[in-house]
Amino acid sequence: MRNTAFLPSGLAAPRPPSAETLALRAVHRAVSELRRGTPVLIEGDGAALLVAAAETVGAQGLTEMAALSGAAPVLLLSPVRASAVLQRPVPLNAPDEGAVALRLPAGLTAPERLRAFADPTAELLLGDGQALERATLPALAAPALALAKLGRLLPALVASPAPAAAEAPGLLRVSAAEVQAYPASVATSLRRVGEARVPLEDAPETRIIAFRAADGGIEHLAMLVGEPEAVLAQGGAPLVRLHSECFTGDLLGSLRCDCGPQLKGALRRMAADGAGILLYLAQEGRGIGLVNKLRAYTLQDQGLDTLDANRALGYGADERNFLVAATMLRLLDAPRVRLLTNNPDKLAGLAACGIEVVTREQHAFAGNGVNDRYLATKAERFGHMLEE
Ligand SMILES: Nc1nc2c(ncn2[C@@H]2O[C@H](COP(=O)(O)OP(=O)(O)OP(=O)(O)O)[C@@H](O)[C@H]2O)c(=O)[nH]1
Ligand SMILES: [Zn+2]
């Protein structure tokens, strides 16, 4: 018999955590390990791969990897970054192959050199790229790079195949299946955790509701302006805006993007309409994180547009997951919306998650001279609908 006397009253006997909870924990922990330069073991289909993030790993991590794997490490990069490092196009074996492996000569594993391979805004040391050759792509390369992206790290990893039974004190293991399931699983695990009335300059009748996922990661917020519940109760659809966090535009008034005017404009419009829901999503930089967005800005100052800058970093054009927003809307009992957006992906993303987008409401603001090219790229390359 287990001793359950220590449990708070009203709680049933302890149940083991569900497989889903264990998987969320494993991925969240693995991401933290990569972010601090510690190797992790990714496993699946009878294979195992030791990986460490090229931008954070130091001598200690590389030594730990060498002790666990007899094989020389390879460098895993996105195809776009691999072509840049090798200074020649990289033909892919399969069209959807999302990773390229490069053999790392012994002298090229100094941490600052690994960082330079990972980061297009760091300068490559002369001739480094020529010293690299392609290597056979190890099993699990794609989920390993996906794990780095979940950690908002550059998708560039030092990797060594390892025996499936590899064990070391503190070595964290995560499965490819857990990594793959994580984005959907973390989004659907969101729960309301706190709320308060917060009168805003642009919308005095506003409540903020916070949502947290079961992995314990960063929270997302909903601003409820007026009484959207009343609109929904009468069978109507409230104005809704999916706003992805933009530290530079929202807080600092950066002129590089249109986020500040879009944020304030949405709140004002909801206040004028009498009701609305603004979801403030912790998906900075279209999901690549603030640090990578700053890197992308550097690349844009060198001539790339906002889409190619993301790709040069090894990321996709837009890494956001709109299941987060759909889950929040469901928890707010708002299955029908009038969506303020110019972005067709948001319409499709919400619809795919079962939210009915009754109408799209134009949400465009004039350029400011600095963000003109950014706005033009959104129209030309992301298909944003800027004309009425
Ligand atoms: N990666 C990257 N992200 C950027 C850049 N400029 C702005 N962002 C981010 O883009 C996001 C803004 O997206 P949203 O406000 O949802 O706008 P949108 O996808 O353009 O769609 P709508 O405004 O709804 O039409 C924020 O997370 C910004 O941080 C950039 O140059 N690169
Ligand atoms: Zn912005």
TrEMBL record:
Keyword match Chaperone: no
Superkingdom of the organism of origin: Bacteria
Pfam family, one: GTP_cyclohydro2
Cofactor binding notes: Binds 1 zinc ion per subunit.
Binding site for GTP: R241, L242, H243, S244, E245, Q262, E284, G285, R286, T306, T341, K346
HAMAP family xref list: RibA
Protein name: GTP cyclohydrolase-2
